Amino acid sequence: MIDVFRDTVTLVSLSILISTIVWWLPLALLFPAFPVAITVAKSQKDIFKAFADKSKPSRLIRYYISVILSTQLVKEIKIFNLSNFFMSKHKENFLELENDLNRIRKKQIIRPQGWNLLYFVTASFVMYWFSNYLATGEVSNGELLGVIQA
Fold first, then answer.
1. Cα 141 vs. chain centroid, distance in angstroms?
2. Phi, psi (deg, nearest 5) at residue 21
3. Cα three-residue angle 99-105-107, rounded to 5 degrees
4. What does the alpha-carbon distance between residue 85 and residue 90 come to, in Å, rounded to a whole number?
5. What angle do CA 3, 4, 9 make, to 5 degrees?
6. What is the dihedral of CA 29, 30, 33, 35, to 10 degrees?
7. Which ranges of 31-82 would DSSP assign to H, the alpha helix?
């Protein structure tokens, strides 16, 4: 909550600062950022769901490792030659979990790219606008630097 409050205060103060240059500038820079934030949050939710849905393979992975590394069960593992069995089960569950997470990570990379393109186009437009106004002297170098830093 503290981070959200801090970021909100920063966002509002920078928006007020930028709006003193041109009233529509904060809107042009912030509008495309909201869909990006929503898609990133959706991807994080997918990762959480994957871990929640795949808790059984995670538990089995821990179980197989604990059995193989247990000093109390070492005799039974060697007598019945169970190390290969537990290692193959461990690998099977690990690969299942890894494949699901990789699928979600690919979605996480691809999903916001359209919105990132919109944000890039908007930021390019703002910089183009600034370069024209900078050339005519309507905007100072300091104002341009302030917007870039904000």
1. 34
2. -80, -55
3. 110
4. 9
5. 100
6. -130
7. 33-53, 55-69, 74-79
Whole-model pTM? 0.60
Helices (H), the chain: 2-19, 25-30, 33-53, 55-69, 74-79, 83-110, 113-136, 141-149
For the chain, the residue count is 150
| Dist CA 109 CA 58 (whole Å) | 24
Q: Please name the residue that has the structure tokens 């390019």.
A: 124
Write out pLDDT tens, residues 109-149.
Answer: 888 888 888 888 988 888 888 888 888 888 788 877 877 77
Give the chain's end-to-end CA distance (angstroms, integer): 22
Answer positive or negative: Cα dihedral of 133, 136, 140, 145: positive
Per-residue pLDDT of 72-103, as tens digits, reads 998 888 889 998 999 999 999 999 888 888 88
